[in-house]
Every structure is written in C-alpha cells, then in structure tokens.
Amino acid sequence: MSDFEPKIVAFCCNWCSYAGADGAGVARLQMPPNFRIIRTMCSARVDPEFILRSLAKGADGVIVLGCHPADCHYIGGNYRARRRIALIRMVLEQYGFDPKRLRLEWVSASEGEKFQKTLTDFVQTIKELGPTPLQEE
Amino acid sequence: MTKSALVIGGGIAGIQASLDLADRDIHVYLVERLPTIGGTMCRLDKTFPTNDCSACILSPKMADCIGHPNITTLTFHEVMKVEGKAGDFKVTLKKKARYVDPSSCTACGDCLAKCPSKGIPDEFEYGLATRRAIYIPHAQAVPRVAIIDAANCRMIKDGKCGVCAKVCQKKAISYEDKDQELTVEVGSIIAAPGFKAWNAAAATEYGYGRFKNVVTALEFERMMCASGPARGHIAVPSSGEEPKKIAFIQCCGSRSEKTGWKKYCSSVCCMYATKQAIITKEHINLQEDIFFMDIRSYGKEFEAYIDRAQKEYGIGMHRSARVSNVDEDPETKKLTVNFTDSNGDGKSEEYDIVVLSIGLNPPDGAEAIAKILGIELNEYGFCKTTVFNPLDTTREGVFVTGAFAAPKDIPTSVAEASGSAGKAGAFIVDDKFIPRAPKVYPQEKDVEGKEPRVGVWVCHCGINIGSVVDVPAVAEYAKSLPNVVLSRQSQYACAQDCLEEISRAIQEEDLNRVVVASCTPRTHEPLFREACRDGGLNKYLFNMANIRDQCSWIHMHAAEAATVKAKDLIRMAIAKVSLLEPLVGSEISVTKSAAVIGGGITGMTAALDIAAQGIPVFLIEKNKELGGFALNFRHKEDGKAVGDFVKELIQKIENNKKITVYKGAAVKDIPGFVGNFKVILDGGKEIPVGAILFATGAAQYKPAEYNYGSDKKVMTNVELENAMADGKFSGKDVAFVQCVGSRNSTVKYCSRVCCASSLRNAIQIKMKDPTANVTVIHKDIRTYGFREELYNKASSLGVKFLRYCVDDAMPDYNGKVVKAHDSILGTDVEIPVDTLVLAAGMTPLREEKEELAKMVKVPISKDGYFFEAHQKLRPVDFATEGVYVAGAAHWPKFMDECIAQGSGAAARMLTTISKDKLISEGIIAVSNPDLCDGCGVCEGCCDYNAITIVADENGFLRSNVNPGLCKGCGSCVASCPAAAMEQRGFRNKQIIAEIDALFNKAGV
C-alpha cells in the first residue's frame, strides 16, 4: 500500500482558494504532486455531478476549496457549497464510499500555507484509505 | 486639433501614467532614453513586502504599453527642447541611431551569436555579465529588438566587419543610421525619469571596487534573480562558492555629511535589504546580518515583514550600528566588517559577501532635463515640489511622478503616476477633445461548426518551469493530443515576441483555439486573450494550464511527477478549450458621476480633480464640516499654514458647481456594480454614480498610557502644536515619547507620521527657547526621505535623543520624571519633565471601514485599513471594479502623500467614468428556455437579484438573467435541477471534459 499514489481532483474557486494555491507556489511551499486543480469561479459552481463524475472516473478523493465563511467574493456562494457537499457526502456513504474521500475546506487568497497543509493532509488521508473502491471492481 | 500627452521615462511610473492616460482615450508619447522600457523595476528580482516576482508583475504592464493603440512608445529617444505653454507645447525629440530597424528585427539572435566584438560590460546586468556590440538589452526587453552599440562596433568605427548585416535574414541592419529629430505637439508633460543609484565607489572605506566580494544592492539583486547572469545561484564572487555569511550595510550614500554622500534618507533601502536577506535565506542556509542606524519600516505591512525577517528567518538586525570600514583578507578574500554595536563597543565580524545598500540619487542629467523642461530642482537636485502640490513642478502643465521628486518605493510611484496622469489629462480633455478611436482588431473568425484547431505554447518561464518540468517533453506530448495542430515551447510566453507569434499563428496556421501552459490566469490571462484578439480570435477561445505556480514551484523536488502533472493539466486544458465557444460581453451604460466618501484633504483633492474634467462629484462627509483630520494642524508647510490650505480647498469645493457636498451624512448602503452604483444615505437619499472613492481617513489613537487626560502635563503632539500656536505653551523640560499606540503588542504597525511631527514640534520649542531641555525617547527615528532634515535640524539645535530597546516596556513616568533605559549607554536615565508629549499613533477606525467594506465586498487588512487590489501595482484600486481607496484610509500618511494618492485615485476613477459604456464580462449565466420549467430554484440562489422568473409569450414561467447584474459565480447553474441554467465559459460539459480528460489518458 505504501507505493499507492492517489489521484485527487481539487476544485478551487477563482478568488480565494485558486489564489491561495498560487500563493503557495509563489512562496515555494512544497507538497505532494497527487492533485489536479480545476478552477471554477465560485465553490458554489461545483455541481454535484462534477464530484460524482470524478469519483466514477477513478478519483481516489475529491476536495472542494472555497473562500472562508463571510468572505465569499459572491456574497454567499460558499454557504451553498457547504450545504451541497454535506448532502453529497451522505449520498456517497450510501453508495459505499468513505465520506472522507470528499472534503470541503476554506482557503483564502493569502493562505498559501493553509493550502499546502490542507492538500498535504488530504493526500495523506486518502493514502490511508487506499484506492477508490471502484478500482476493485 | 486634439493634443497628445508626453511622458518622459519608461520605468514603472512612466508606464502607469501612460496607461492611465491611454485608457481615457488620450494619445501618449512615452519617451525612454534607453533601448527598452521597464526602468529599474524590471531589473529587480522580487519586490517587498509581498515578495512578488518583479518581472512577473511588470511584464504584463510593459506588454500593455507597447500594445496599446493610444501609446506611441519611443525608446532610445531623448527630449531636446520644449517650447510653448501649458496646453500647447511643442517638443523636439531626438531619435538616437539604433542601427537596427525595430520593425524588421525579430530578435532571432543570429547577429548576436556572430558579432566578433565581445566582452563589453552588460549595463543591464550592472557589468556582472558581458555582451557583444550588437545586443538585445535583456530577455524581457520591450521592444525586444537588437541594437548596435556604435562605440564598440567594428563596422561603424573602422568600416571593417559587417558580419551582423550579412547574417540578418530580415535585412534589418543599417550602419548608416543617423540620429534624427522629430517634433510632437502635446498639451501636457509628465516627467518620470526615475533615479540613479548612488555611486558606491565613493565609499572607499567599504572597499567597493577594490574588494571583489563587496557588491552593491543592485548587483546583488541581479545575482539573486533567476533571469540574472548566475541564474539565481548566489555565489561568492571571488570563489564561486555558496556564501555562508552575508552582511548588509545600510545607508550607503545616505544620511551622512561625508563628501559624496547625501544628507537625506533614501526611503527604500531598509526594506529592500531585508527582502534580499529573506529571499537569499530561502535559497541558502546561511547567516545574514543587517547593519543599520534606524530600521525604517513605515509602510503598509512593512513592520510585520521586518518582524518575520528576524523571527522566522533568523536574520540578525544590528541597530544603531554604523560600519566604520570593511577589510579584506588578501588570501581568502573574506571580508571583515568593523562596526560599533548598539552599546557603543567596537566589534569585528567576518563575512563572505558584503552588500552595500546604496541610496537613490537624482537621475542622470537631472539638471539638463530641468533646463529643457524649464522646471526647478530642489537643494538635493531632485524635482522641486511642495507639500500641497506634490505632483506639480514649477512650470504649469509639467508634472512630476516617481523617484524624480524624492526617493520613493514602487506603490507610491504608481499612485503618483496615476495622479499626474489625471492632472496632465486636464490640459488635454476639453470641449473640443476628440477621444482616440478604440483599437481596431481583425475581424473575429467564425468558428461555428468548425473542428477545433488548437495551438499550444508551453512556457519555460526562464528556469521557473523548465528547471523542474521537462518542457520539451510536455510540448512534444501535447502534439499527440486530439485537436492539437501545433505545440511550441517558449522561453517567456508573456514576452512580446511570443505574444506576436501567437497572434500570427492564429492566422497562418488557422488556429481556432489557443492554450498557453505557463503561470496563473489570475495575472496573465488578459495578456494572452489580447494576443488572441490581435490574431482575430475571440478571446474566450483561450485557456491556460497553470504549470508554474501550481506545479513546478510546489513540486520542485519531484521533477518526474511534476512533468506528469504538467501533461495532465495540459490535456485537461485542451479538452476544455476544444468545447469553449466565442462569447461577447454585453454593454453596460456608465453613470458619469462619482461619489467620494470622506471630505478630508484626500477626498477634497480627488473631488476637485474629477470635477476639473467636467464630471459631477458627490462628496459625502460624516462630520458637519469638511476638512477632516487636517483641521487639527496649526503648522506651516513650505511657508504656508495648513489651515489656510484647508480653507482654500473647502472654498474651491463649495464654489465648484460640479461638486455636491453632503455634510453630516452617513452611507447606509451601496448597491449596484461598476458604472451603476447607488450610494444610499441614511434618510434614504439615493445618489447614482459610476465609481466610488473611499477616502474615510483614520483617527489619532487616544492614549490610555501616562495618565493622559487626567495629568495636565501630558499631551499629544496635536495638542502641543495647538498650545504653541495659541501662545499657551511655556514648557522648559519637555520629553517626547514615541510609538504610543504603535509598534506594541496590540498595534504592531508603525504609524509613519509621528516621528516627523514630534521633531517638528521639538524644533519649534528649541527655536523659541534655546534653553529648553527637549528629549525625544524613541525606538527608531523614521524621518524618511527629505524629512531627515527635521532630524538633522533637531540634533543641531540640541534636542537630545534617547533610544530605548525596541522590545523593552515603554518608559516609566511618575508625574514628574520620565525613566527610560538608554540602550546606547546601557543604563536607566531619569528625565525631569514639565511636559510629556505623546507621539500618539494612528488608529484605523476599523468598525467604520468594515461597514463600508461589506457594502461593496472589499477586504480589510489585518491592521484594519482598506486592502487594495495589489500592494505594489494597484495601490488605489480595489479588486471590486469601480471602487477605489486613497489617503489614510489605505494607510497612515503625510499630507503630501494623501494629496498625491487622492489625485491618483481620481485619475483611476476617470478611466471608468469618462467612458460612455463599459463592456461586461462574457462569463455569465444564461438560461435555456427550452429546458427551463420556471421552478425558481435559481432565483433564490442568486445573491445579486440578477435572476427573475417571468412568463414567456405562451404564459410559461422561465428564468431570465440580467447580464448587467450577473457576476458569473455559477451558483444558480449548480442548483438547476433541469440543467437549463448554464454558465458561459464554465458550462457543465466543459468542466466535465476536464474531468474526463484527467482520467482518460487516451484523450477526450
């Protein structure tokens, strides 16, 4: 299991978390190369379909990153994202996925370090969970 | 005839001034004496306090300048003569012989490789590298074309060579080229020739020029820089080895009466030295020490930066340490720095490299420039300005910006540049003004129903990407992907030559989609989109893969995995771009008026500048009177009482028919968006405006220390100033305590203005009564720039200075005696006082700012001031379009700085409200009426009230999106149960294509 390199999809909102990811780069904060970022304008744009599609295609984990509560560039998009993710986690569990495979976090534009820590930790979590259950089939 | 504007100097200040004028459809001649624009900033590695890569943030502006249809960039030109008067200048320019036709040269480099005249010191690299007689100034030069240095060219000197002309395929070289004269007619002139670094050779005691390992800060900047001669690998010059110890010596050429040195403070060196120490430490594990007299970190978030340097990076900060001299060991070439430490003891320490923090001097030829322009210089040889008119020279219609007026940092120069542009514009825009026609782009090609033909450019970004990611392999891989018709590598995709290549390839290779794999779309997407438009492609048919910030920079030690990731990201980008469709933004009408919130000198200055261009302004002041904090001042600046100046400003405001003043008014809400805001006042008054300025200022801290308020002997500087002006002050034993309410554990920042106000008052006391005992108890004295005069004058009048340790508790006071620890003497000192003056800092009025901030969604900095869009290059803009900030609301400032920033913000606002209409973003939500069943989920989802559910002609309910109100978040799209709502540019199928491409390596 130690050589398992998970594939992770990270959805980042344009204003905070994508900028935070850039900030991590500018500060040269090093992290595991297991994730690929897909940029949306707001975390609320992340359609449940995107998450389910990623998992169905073989993602070992999906992380959605948005602005901190009350900091959303679009006023309240992140609250909507939060409600949606909570629901999707329930659905995932019913379908036999560990809900830990889907995470929602807040990273602001200035939090390069939090981006690094969050992603590093998520990669570790997924490594511990092992490959997606879909792979066994 | 409509006049143009002339901007002299192509550094960051000149570039910003030109762009602001050009964005108001005013034509600009930008004249630069060197062969490339970019000034000093393009030679810097990083910028403080954000550590942004200098070239990365400047390059887009340079490219904007050269590509702007309203800017004629004249590099290698000089101004020879100025005739006429404001509004009607006739300017003679000299076009210096370049010997290479810039319009033919493609910067292929064939001539550079063959030129036999080698080994010429490269000016751009401060002589750290060599070049040939024909050369391109540097990799990101704008324009990026070759030039011949006639003095070293064998053909031009002796008629024996001609190799470059032979190898040039484009026949761009002409040895017969001659200087030419041309004349231009302009309405106004902006002088931004910048500064010249102090010549370190005058510091014989530090061994510059004699000792190889003593370098200037600018040379060190090139040594650090990834695009510098050593590719960013810092090495000891004598040995090439990695340094283990570096010393930075501050105030080289500044703050001294020595021959060849300057008396003033150069304002920026403390910060740049700290930046160099931090960045070096990020590359190498070593010991670094900074030797300084006072650390002058007075700007926004500067104090926190210094704190991090000490605590996180372990950089040694040696206060009150003036280095007497530097010795070299002739064998090892190691350097011994001899200095007096803060206890006054002589000490020595050995270093591998000594960096001299050289000061800023007037630019080369300042006197000649002044003579040509007919303007006066000040006693230091900089352009003469006054506190109340910081952007005006002594000649009407000629304005100054940047370091030509005084040593200053980049954001100050940028804000001033906008301000000068605003003022210069007033001499050009009148009733007869005809705006320049908008840029004409080639007809956009019709892509409807066409197979995608994708062009891919993979950027090396110098070594930023290429040193980790295998760029050639990635570019080769991209060729194998569906729809890709060409895939190329580029050294710098953002450089002018590559942008032109993209535009050309769109036509020549019939591309209908473009992908650039480089840095982040947040900074560079607009640039590449413009290149697409120039090639006749809709700008939304472009996509970026971020393989630098989010790949090579964060996986530096995993080259293989980073290369795999880069391939994945490119595959995803290509999958998405193939499905993108051309978008057209909708037109937004603009309310041609402005709201200025805050009626202090900043707000009043901005209001007058906007009104001067004929645009109505609504000035909203919470107090019953205009004037703001400046009403408290009783002193004079440049011989004029501040009170008189404020009175005149108020009078001008009240007599100006374009300005409506609301006094005692509070803002309740600000709904709307750029071009279409509504400022709603308490009581319900609604004011429609196109742009808004927050000039709400700050307040003075009300001390809780030293029995302030109950002990009559204790007063603030403002109270002392008033007491003296009223003749009610008779103190004989006066002590000033600095940093009351600043630089402590709760308010960590420096309030910038208190040192100068204490010294101004101390001087007043001593002038009136030379027998008075006056002591200033401080941590550092921060009289930056020409304010150093105050420090010198106070010292010469016998004001005593007592430095207590930065980390110590505040001095004690028992009602009669102040007790402080003198860190130089190392003992406690007791000072009897009849007056204790508190240098009370500035407090941001955070709650008030937070309320306003919420109304337009702008951020507040951690210190409680408004947080601008970019600390370096967008100092008065907010990320929210149409909203701006200036003055003490942005950060504590002196009056001249507030005035300059107020003018700067006004000019930025004019770039919006001088237009009839704006074009909205194309990325908005649209509803497909065939799928929508009018359920209304989307309506409740929209925080901007952009969606309404209306009945169509058949009576069916359908969702309708207002493009002017939609901000394009896509929240409604993800909520739509019928898949009727879509977001342009981020359609479901487009994002799903990205996901599928990631997992489906065979392609889409």
Question: Secondary-structure map with pairings?
Answer:
The complex is a heterodimer of chains A (about 140) and B (about 1000).
Chain A: E1 8-13, H1 17-26, E2 35-40, H2 48-57, E3 61-66, H3 77-94, E4 102-106, H4 112-129
Parallel strand pairs in A: 1-2, 1-3, 3-4
Chain B: E1 4-8, H1 12-22, E2 28-32, E3 46-47, E4 52-53, H2 54-67, E5 71-75, E6 77-85, E7 88-95, H3 110-114, E8 120-121, E9 130-131, E10 134-135, E11 147-148, H4 154-158, H5 163-167, E12 180-191, E13 196-197, E14 214-216, H6 217-224, E15 245-252, H7 269-283, E16 287-291, H8 302-311, E17 316-318, E18 323-328, E19 335-340, E20 346-351, E21 353-358, E22 360-361, H9 366-373, E23 398-400, H10 410-426, E24 454-459, H11 471-479, E25 484-490, H12 496-508, E26 513-518, H13 521-534, E27 542-546, H14 548-552, H15 559-579, E28 587-589, E29 594-597, H16 601-611, E30 617-620, E31 636-637, E32 640-641, H17 642-655, E33 659-662, E34 667-669, E35 672-673, E36 676-681, E37 686-689, E38 691-694, E39 699-700, E40 714-716, H18 717-725, E41 733-740, H19 754-768, E42 773-778, H20 788-796, E43 800-803, E44 812-813, E45 817-822, E46 827-832, E47 835-840, E48 842-843, H21 846-856, E49 883-885, H22 895-913, E50 917-919, E51 925-927, H23 937-941, E52 947-951, E53 957-961, H24 971-975, E54 981-983, H25 988-999
Parallel strand pairs in B: 1-2, 1-12, 2-5, 12-23, 14-21, 15-16, 15-21, 16-17, 24-25, 24-26, 26-27, 29-30, 29-38, 30-33, 38-49, 40-47, 41-42, 41-47, 42-43
Antiparallel strand pairs in B: 3-4, 6-7, 7-12, 8-9, 10-11, 13-22, 18-19, 19-20, 28-50, 31-32, 34-36, 35-36, 36-37, 39-48, 44-45, 45-46, 51-54, 52-53
